[in-house]
Amino acid sequence: MKQAVQVAEAQDIVLNAVAALGAEKVPLRDALQRVSAEDVNASRDIPLGDNSAMDGYAVRYADVAGSSSQKPTILDVLEILPAGKTPQHQIAPGTAIKIMTGAPLPVGADTVVQIEHTNADDFRVAIYEAPPITSNLRRRGEDIHTGECVLRQHTLLRPAELGVLASVGQAQVWVYQRPRVAILATGDEIADPGDPDNRDKILNSNSYTLAGQVAEAGGVPVLLGVAPDRRDVIHDRLASGLRADVLITSGGVSVGQFDFVRECLNGLDFEARFHTVAMRPGSPITFGLVRHVPVFSLPGNPVASMVTFELFVRPALLKMTGHRELFRPRIAAVLQDGMEKRRGVRTFLRGVLSQDDTPPTVTTTGPQGSGILRSMSLANCLIDISEEAERLSPGDPVAVMRI
Ligand code: AMP
Ligand code: MG
């Protein structure tokens, strides 16, 4: 295996190793933020029939043309028609039906006059203003036609998509399954924030940032807690984590004397695809498969763990959940501060992007050490600096990804 791979190559390796999971049928109320696994065609017209878009009077345009407040048209009112009722009369010359929004258009009517332009008693209505012919009508199928595709496969289901599915009578929808993602933290020095007597410990933040990132990418996080730096314990926890669809570990993956994660993976038929990526933060990241389960061993430093998740795990989870767009859009911005970096290493700075400026500007969040988690919580973007760059100055153009 080649030593350090470049970021783009590592992303290709990961994406070639994973595929969309199977589909499941879920009720609409559980389908928000899921990804459709089917094309859906409308089984009815929307609207079902011609109906009124206003509360008013259904009329024949020929009767009311030229009406004004000086010269109102007087029509006989045949009935009052609520939404959901069928008209009992047809509109003949000189007549009107009082009609509510959504009620079916009576035969003979071609226009609805808004109630605001009329005055009426129980039997007759005066029309003071004639709208253009066919005003205030909603035509059968003007929104959706029977047979028309209203949802494509691989679409993220937002509230609007759920509404469209409901309106064509689809109570359930086929979506891609969500991957269960096991998350194991490692380190003798690490304790959970809820553990008793954790005063002298470094608190486990990675499990929580990673669980949040997993959930945002459409996965289901399964927390496996913190394993001490012991081969037997790590081996057993890894083995149980491999029952999930994806396994993520943090820490213990570098070249320290007590970094046992790689060694333990090798004892579990691990097929490594890469060990080190030419990037900062996060270069010691291992990726491979145990049977079909993708395993990401991320570095322990909190920022490195988040950034490597963003670059490698997130696109994989998006692909597994059926998405086609796997990467964040890139935005061009002007850097406000400067920095120096090592040539050959792709570098991801944490930044604050301001899109109120034209062109957009971006400023780093201050100290950029891979342990400084505040640099992530203050940031709204990652600034992506290419392998080739060595020095950046205020005013330089950069590419950023909103996170
Ligand atoms: P390692 O990769 O195990 O050498 O860890 C690198 C650094 O990240 C060390 O300072 C660890 O204490 C820290 N670290 C490792 N795991 C976690 C975690 N789960 N939460 C917060 N910090 C961690
Ligand atoms: Mg460690």
What this model shows, in words?
The protein has 403 residues and is an alpha/beta fold. The chain has 4 domains: 7-21 and 178-320, Molybdenum Cofactor Biosythetic Enzyme, Chain A; 23-46 and 143-176, Molybdopterin biosynthesis moea protein, domain 2, CATH 3.90.105.10; 51-138, Molybdopterin biosynthesis moea protein, domain 3 (Molybdopterin biosynthesis moeA protein, domain 3); 330-398, MoeA, C-terminal, domain IV (Beta-clip, Beta Barrel), CATH 2.40.340. Helices cover 19% and strands 32% of the residues. Strand 26 (346-354) and strand 27 (361-364) form a beta hairpin. Helix 4 runs parallel beside helix 7 (302-320). The mean pLDDT is 96. Bound molecules: adenosine monophosphate and magnesium ion (MG). Residues 185, 187, 189-190, 202, 204-207, 250-252, 254, 256, 299-302 line the site of adenosine monophosphate.
Structure characteristics:
single chain; Molybdenum Cofactor Biosythetic Enzyme, Chain A; Molybdopterin biosynthesis moeA protein, domain 3; 4 domains; 6-stranded mixed sheet; 32% strand; elongated; binds adenosine monophosphate; binds magnesium ion
The fourth-level CATH homologous superfamily of the largest domain is MoaB/Mog-like domain
Low-confidence stretches: none
- What is the β-strand count? 30
Structural class: alpha/beta
Helix content: 10-25%
Identify the strand order in the major beta sheet: 8-5-7-6-10-9
What is the alpha-carbon Rg in Å? 31 Å
The best one-word shape is elongated
Largest sheet: 6 strands, mixed
> What is the tally of helical segments?
8
Broad CATH class of the largest domain: Alpha Beta
Mean pLDDT: 96
**Number of self-contained structural domains:** 4
What proportion strand? Answer: 25-35%
Under the CATH scheme, which architecture of the largest domain would be assigned?
3-Layer(aba) Sandwich
The molecules bound to the chains, other than polymers, are: adenosine monophosphate, magnesium ion
CATH topology of the largest domain: Molybdenum Cofactor Biosythetic Enzyme, Chain A
Task: State the end-to-end CA separation.
Answer: 32 Å
